[in-house]
Amino acid sequence: MALGTILNKPVTPSILLEAVGLVLGKGVVVETRAREKDQHHSDATARLRGARVLLVEDNDLNQELAMELLANAGIEAVVAGNGREALDILAGDTRFDGVLMDCQMPVMDGYEATRAIRATPALAGMPVIAMTANALVGDREKVIAAGMQDHIAKPLNVGEMFATLARWIRPAGGEGATATAASGPAGTTVPLAGMELPGIDVKAGLATAMDNESLYLRLLRKFRDSQGDFARVFAESQSGADRVAPARVAHTLKGTAGNIGARGVQEVAGALEAGCLADGPPERIAALLANVLQELDPVIAGLRGLDAGLAGPVAAAAVAVDQAQLHFQQEKLRRLLMESDSGAADLWDEQAALFKAAWPGHWQHIQAGIGSFDFDAAWRRWTKWRGMRRPERTPALAMVFSGTAIWIPVSSSSARKPCCWSTTRPTTSP
Predict the structure, then answer these.
(1) Ordered structural domains, the chain, with CATH
(2) pLDDT over 90 for what percent of the chain?
(3) Long-range contacts, 317-323 (Cβ 8 Å, 24+)
């Protein structure tokens, strides 16, 4: 008897179905798993486009990553730094299609914030989805018990993240509603995919950043700057009154390390977090901390040389300033900063050599604001230096007739109360 095909273990359902199709003479009856995943990802993001979500996350690296991924999918996001801030925002603005909730945060964690949301009648039906580095079965049960609908594990699997969001979130404007997405991936001067960084799986980190090299480079720098003094930060957390603080510090390291592809650091940081949560004896915690520093130190050392590795090509490109190009690019940057558009960060990375050469006495201040995702601060630096100010929008009232919005300018004397109008979600004036 002739063999029709051979199955190699382990056998997945798609491999088995494909083999059966070949043996029966039906050919390949299923698409490859990669193609299926791409299609599912595209379908999920299409359904989410135009959604407006509240992102509750205390870590700025995770904020930047999530904001960029959401913006590229056409999802508007508002950020809260902890559960208390989230409740304050929701008290004045309920026009969200869902909440993405980190669980481990200072001031108020995600569990308490979710219980408060569920206790508020106006918010009781709002989808709340956990985003946390805890991915064990018991952790998922805990978030469900707190009132959250689902759980997204960190480090982020982008396809699974959007599939989970699409399962629960429906844009108020309907599926496929129009939204302004961030600019696509911007190339860096050095292909990061070919770089070797100690302790970091660059390919995995780039996958988390959806192969956006500019974004991934910013995440690497932010990890270096925020976790480079981990030993001191952890020691300070141990000396404080908050007993959960050491576990929270380890939890943050675990999540951010996973997102950049530092899997070794992620693993030992998770062990340190577990030891802290179990109230392990001091000698046990000290041993776990030593393991963390052993994995973390070479990663930080490698990242400290990251800019030096990029500086050569960047500096070589900036031999002279093309005034026409400078005028074009700085006008783009001005508009992006004025609108607090995350595309400013991509543009800055793409045109860093030009801006640094043209503005030797000012670029550091603007870069500091952009690098921390504080576009208002960068805009204030820009306007102070250039002697400009943000143009004020003309106050207006919006009236809707048969689905068409009509904007009616009003005098400043009649617009004493600040208000906000949405082009996709018309509201009635109070």
Answers:
(1) 48-168 (3.40.50.2300), 192-305 (1.20.120)
(2) 42
(3) 317/189, 317/353, 318/353, 318/354, 318/356, 318/357, 320/357, 321/354, 321/357, 321/358, 322/354
